[in-house]
């Protein structure tokens, strides 16, 4: 370093001042500068640089005053060199200089100091696909691209013999997923516990994740981000019995599951939906009969079914949507471009679909037959019904997308606006 070199030269000059008479004698007797350098080095053990520094001293520096100033400067320099060497030899000072920036992380005192899986797993969107035989797959939403109506679609993967798709939902990795079985029992597991797989993979058997009894099937899966007091679970059985239970009652579920609903012999729990106390319920039978129920319905026969008919689907109509619908009903659409939403989206087992304005259906009480929502051909019947129109563009049309899954596992992701709006009686 430069300051060490300067100090080294100063030491040589100090030696020269202490032996000034001898230095003058050597210089006077030398025949050249190089000879004087050699003489000084031999006489006082100086280096070549130190000897040259002594020779470079001007005569005016040899006065008592100048020499005193030089001694004071040299002493100050040597003290500074000593301090710098001490600082450089200290590990603490080296680290302070090297990592002088403020700490960017935060240290906290915790009870155990251990990280859980959920602390390091990103809370990303995901798709869950469930088959009738209990095989579950977790996939990325980008697995299925947007397609046009009427296209073949993309397969969700090979299904086992006599197996078919049962449920298909969107959730997030940190969600609690509630698994409801046909026997009325509910189980719980975090979404990230399900192994992620490709579109063509077979999936994970639910018996590897849940403690299912022999012959028990999962019929509905519900993702829950947070258990809040003002939310409920609406349950509907195949025979049309409906029940509403506070969501908080399912916040702590043991590994063996808990009973969600008591069933009569021959009945099974088929559909479960999240709702609030003010929401409305739209339900449909395989024969295309539709009913809209008001709030506060629980533990009763929701819909009177005709002989040979059974429940096909259920969905929730948010209270805000229904209230907005009542406001819009005062201003009928006379544009001739179809009635405004929201709508009920009907999908038949043969793949036909239509939208019917929600305003076409009245609210009724429990244990009624319901209204015709879809006229089917003899070989077709209703597969599912959804409420759409939550998000609408400036032209009043839906700007939503819907993912449709066939029993064979073919997935189609299409725009809702591409599905025609028709009356209740249209085929």
Label the CATH architecture of the largest domain: 6 Propeller
Overall geometric form = rod-shaped
How much strand content do the residues show? 25-35%
Tell me the domain tally: 3
Please estimate the helix content. 10-25%
Low-confidence stretches: none
Question: Considering the protein shown, what is the CATH homologous superfamily of the largest domain?
Answer: DNA gyrase/topoisomerase IV, subunit A, C-terminal
Rounded to an integer, what's the Rg over CA atoms?
A: 43 Å
* Name of the level-1 CATH class of the largest domain: Mainly Beta
Structural class: alpha+beta
In total, the number of strands is 23
How far is it from the N-terminal to the C-terminal residue, by CA? Answer: 93 Å
Major beta sheet summary: 5 strands, mixed
Mean pLDDT: 78
CATH fold type of the largest domain: Neuraminidase
Count of helical stretches? 8
Describe the secondary-structure layout.
Elements: H1 2-18, H2 20-29, H3 33-44, H4 48-55, H5 64-88, H6 91-98, H7 117-120, E1 125-131, E2 135-139, E3 154-155, E4 165-172, E5 176-181, E6 185-190, E7 204-205, E8 218-224, E9 231-237, E10 241-246, E11 258-259, E12 269-276, E13 280-285, E14 289-293, E15 300-301, E16 311-317, H8 319-328, E17 343-348, E18 353-357, E19 363-364, E20 371-372, E21 382-388, E22 401-405, E23 410-415
Parallel strand pairs: 14-19
Antiparallel strand pairs: 1-2, 1-4, 2-7, 3-23, 5-6, 5-8, 6-11, 9-10, 9-12, 10-15, 13-14, 13-16, 14-20, 17-18, 17-21, 22-23
Helix pairs in contact: 1-4, 1-5, 2-3, 3-4
Pfam family, one: DNA_topoisoIV
Keywords: ATP-binding, Nucleotide-binding
GO biological process, one term: DNA topological change
